[in-house]
Design goal:
4-stranded antiparallel β-sheet; Chitinase A, domain 3; single chain; Triger factor/SurA peptide-binding fold; 451 residues; globular; 49% helix; repeat; 3 domains; alpha+beta
Length: 451
């Protein structure tokens, strides 16, 4: 959930909803008429949204304004983020992804808890920081929609074979090493023309010259010149294991020292510079001993035919029957809507805390062995859970294989998701208006060496 908070705060810095329609005539006379900054399929981005987002970025860089690109370039970067948010939210809604008010409330409560505050204290802090609470809730709703769209994409598009896991395990020479990376991307469109390729090459070479000469550090160059969505974070990619680094860079990483920057490399998205920031030994990050839980559950799904209130009422009724002495397994066989466990009386077997998602796992951890939960809300619906046991297990090779499978999957997902976003952006109707015309990749040239 900490990751969710970071994403929400980043989205909140970029996105603000349109003014409420209930303004009085006097207020309308005092306020300038808002303009449309962009049309994105059937949605619009208002000029006020863009201005607030840009001003939030400027506030974050107070005292370091020299690290930012010119205003028109910054507006283009922020506009592209807003466009991608609109497109992903629209795609999620079109494909049936939904987020209820109760799920937003649960996310806010979790964010507040992670930060040692109550939901009301979090609300006050958000307001003090200059964001209206409805805007904050909307940012969370959109982030949850995008997360679920990405999860659905991963489930349908990403697979990792046992042969890939075997190959990765046999190729690991330093499995405990992790690399902190940052990158600068000069993007190229699909089917780039020779002229576009030449322009992008000149730009990436100019950026590399600036960094090599010491005229600009890597982070500032990323903010100013990178076309990557994480440009305004200095191109930071975080910590990666070797399995999470594209093969075009993995051999380079082994030969580099912290602080070094690669020569320009052509990849599927365009030309990149990669910086090795730090290296660490993370061999203790994945102990073989893990806690597993044995539980059984009953699921009442929430869908178009069963609203949230009805599903919760059913779950509460079933829990009351079990608490009154009814057999859990029999109730599960009769009423549970989880086909994978229904025939087993709801038995889920042994699992780790995160195996069924953080919401479900967190509730199981909070129970005592033999304890029956109150109804629990997750993305799937309402659950009644009985924790049956706890154990410490040495997962050994299974754990290592699972970790390698996960890292390969993350790397594949990153590549495929970025390609998916480019396709989505290319297929969308986007009309950018006013003083933020859409620029082709590579049109913000880097200064020549020495100037």
């Amino acid at each position: 959930m900490k990751k969710l908070l970071a994403c929400v705060l980043a989205a909140g810095a970029l996105y603000a909803s349109a003014p409420l329609l209930g303004a009085t005539a006097t207020a309308q006379e005092l306020q300038p008429i808002d303009r449309i900054a962009a049309v994105v399929d059937e949605s619009v981005i208002l000029r006020s949204e863009l201005d607030r987002a840009v001003n939030n970025i400027l506030a974050q860089y107070a005292g370091r304004e020299g690290q930012l690109p010119p205003r028109e370039v910054l507006e283009r970067q922020v506009m592209e983020r807003l466009i991608l948010v609109k497109l992903q939210v629209g795609r999620a809604q079109d494909t049936g992804v939904r987020v209820t008010d109760q799920e937003i409330d649960q996310a806010i409560a979790s964010i507040a808890q992670q930060n040692g505050a109550t939901p009301e204290q979090l609300r006050q802090q958000v307001t003090r920081d200059g964001t209206s609470y409805p805007e904050f809730r909307n940012s969370i709703r959109e982030e949850l929609l995008i997360q679920r769209l990405r999860q659905r994409f991963a489930q349908t598009r990403i697979s990792v074979s046992e042969a890939e896991v075997d190959a990765a395990l046999s190729a690991q020479q330093n499995s405990g090493t992790q690399y902190h990376l940052a990158h600068i991307l000069v993007s190229l469109p699909e089917g780039a023309t020779p002229e576009q390729i030449t322009t992008a090459q000149k730009k990436i070479q100019g950026v590399k010259s600036l960094i090599d000469s010491g005229e600009m550090d890597f982070s500032a160059a990323a903010v100013r010149y990178s076309d990557s969505p994480n440009a305004l974070e200095g191109g930071d990619l975080g910590w990666r294991s070797m399995n999470e680094i594209p093969s075009a860079f993995s051999e380079l990483m082994r030969a580099m020292s912290p602080g070094q920057v690669t020569a320009p490399v052509r990849g599927p998205s365009g030309f990149q510079l990669l910086k090795l920031v730090e290296v660490r030994d993370a061999s203790q990050a994945a102990p073989s001993m893990v806690t597993q839980y044995h539980a059984r559950h009953i699921l009442i799904r929430v869908d178009d035919t069963t609203p949230d209130t009805q599903a919760r009422a059913t779950a509460e009724t079933l829990r009351a029957r079990i608490a009154g002495g009814a057999n859990f397994a029999e109730i599960a066989r009769e009423s549970s809507q989880d086909p994978s466990s229904q025939g087993k009386g709801g038995d889920l077997g042994w699992f780790t805390q995160d195996q069924y998602g953080p919401d479900f796992g967190g509730q199981v951890v909070a129970l005592e062995d033999g304890q029956l939960s109150q109804p629990i809300r997750t993305q799937a619906g309402w659950h009644i859970v009985e924790r049956l046991g706890t154990r410490q297990t040495d997962v050994g090779d299974d754990n290592r294989r699972a970790q390698v499978r996960e890292t390969i999957g993350r790397r594949k997902l990153e590549d495929e998701w970025n390609r998916y976003l480019r396709e989505m952006r290319g297929e969308a109707y986007v009309d950018v208006r006013g003083k933020t015309p859409e620029a082709a990749p590579g049109t913000e040239p880097a200064p020549a060496t020495g100037g």
